[in-house]
Specification:
10-stranded antiparallel beta sheet; single chain; 9-stranded antiparallel beta sheet
């Protein structure tokens, strides 16, 4: 069993445990179905309203504190990034939380990078052409023309290149056609406005990016391939099969990671369409339109979607892509884990960062840069800043930061951009 598979199964087990520390977000588990119950529930309220027949679960692994505490590494020298942090520091509160550093800061929050389009998909190319952040998009490379030579010379490694390509294969565009009225006014514990709170045009199209993280095949409710499960369904539950007397007995469930500010809840998920393999303009349109929210955390800006298809060709293709990912992931992880230990002893540090996304909702692009700072959030979480080029439409894209520790292939997604032109991820779980 691969190290990634073991880690994933451990996370799935932990996710099902009852958590009570984090008051921001929790879910009810009912026969395997996860539904959002509340966004702002205090511990006292939760205790009063608890029901022994229901389990409360949170997207909050191994947390020992009631607040997420952010710490900059001591070796950080990026003054532009540091300038974005709130300098307020409550030493007494930090001591109560068991924080060991005096450098605690409030969350790093800039501008989101979803693409809003009042005219729908037909206006997406206009948004790209009018882009002010990256006019001309010279630092983006179309995924279908990306070659080994497009990587920095010191990283022109065939395994790393193949890993980037399989990440690209699994990257999806996310279209959200409605905005939930339940979005909060502010990011947790801040006065920073939360994206699209009470927007005046909730029907405007919003686009972001995401990545397929698991694919599981089921037949008559029994898992046949993959390792995420079980399922509560006995037949396919896609929109085509739902309520049908001839629903397919074979289907594939697809788990997708994105940012919470891209798809906030099931209201938005029910009006969300994922486009796969959008590698070039005028390519075949492959979509999945049955989507639900599996888990989310507002503060970490992490959202997991559950999608379904009974299209046999699509299901088999995704299963094979996922198996390719597992193979090349193992090779690259082992290679750079060993190299990281050797290079660290020689004072060398890997800084490669790459992102595959759908800027402005258009075809898939690769951008390559460097990560700048690692921001620790609690004991086993972190977020990163990086120079890698992003645009509106990149929110939710998978973020790879090479060599920051032994587990550099974590669930980081792109979250936003700062005035200093430095971009940043959500919080990854290790």
């Amino acid at each position: 069993m691969s190290s990634y598979k073991r880690k994933t199964e451990t996370k799935e087990k932990e996710f099902e445990e009852i958590k009570t520390e984090n008051d921001k977000t929790y879910f009810l588990l009912n026969n395997g179905n996860i539904t959002k119950e509340s966004l702002n529930v205090t511990s006292a309220q939760r205790s009063d309203d608890s029901n022994d027949s229901e389990e409360i679960a949170q997207w909050n692994y191994d947390s020992d504190d009631n607040e997420s505490v952010a710490q900059w590494n001591d070796d950080s020298d990026d003054t532009e990034s540091l300038a974005q942090w709130n300098d307020s520091d409550d030493s007494e509160a930090n001591e109560e939380r068991g924080v060991k550093s005096d450098a605690t800061k409030r969350p790093l929050i800039g501008d989101h990078e979803t693409q809003e389009s009042e005219g729908g998909e037909v206006n997406l190319h206009k948004h790209r052409d009018d882009c002010k952040k990256n006019p001309g998009h010279m630092q983006f490379i179309p995924v279908d023309t990306f070659t080994l030579n497009d990587l920095p010379k010191e990283y022109q490694d065939n395994d790393l290149y193949e890993f980037l390509k399989v990440i690209a294969d699994l990257t999806v565009r996310i279209n959200v056609e409605i905005t939930s009225p339940d979005r909060p006014e502010f990011w947790p514990e801040t006065t920073q406005p939360y994206p699209f709170y009470k927007t005046s045009k909730p029907e405007n199209l919003r686009t972001g990016s995401g990545i397929v993280r698991h694919v599981t095949k089921f037949q008559d409710g029994v898992r046949q391939d993959g390792y995420i499960g079980p399922t509560v369904y006995k037949k396919c539950w896609c929109k085509k099969c739902e309520g049908s007397d001839s629903a397919s007995s074979v289907w594939w469930e697809i788990d997708v990671n994105t940012a919470t500010h891209v798809v906030f809840d099931d209201i938005e998920a029910s009006h969300t369409i994922l486009r796969l393999f959008f590698d070039r303009e005028n390519c075949d349109k492959v979509v999945v339109d049955t989507v639900s929210v599996q888990y989310f955390n507002i503060e970490y800006d992490m959202c997991g979607l559950k999608c379904v298809t009974c299209d046999e060709n699509l299901g088999k293709k995704l299963i094979e892509m996922w198996k390719d990912y597992e193979i090349i992931h193992g090779k690259v992880f082992n290679k750079y884990k060993s190299a990281s230990v050797e290079n660290t002893s020689q004072g060398v540090e890997f800084k490669l960062n790459f992102i595959v996304s759908h800027p402005h909702g258009c075809s898939k692009q690769v951008s390559v840069g460097e990560w700048k700072d690692r921001l620790e959030v609690g004991e086993d979480r972190a977020k990163f800043t990086y120079t890698t080029c992003t645009c509106p439409g990149s929110s939710g894209a998978h973020v790879i930061c090479l060599g920051y520790n032994d587990d550099w292939l974590s669930d980081l997604v792109h979250s936003g951009t700062l005035d200093s032109k430095i971009n940043y991820s959500g919080v990854g779980l290790f």
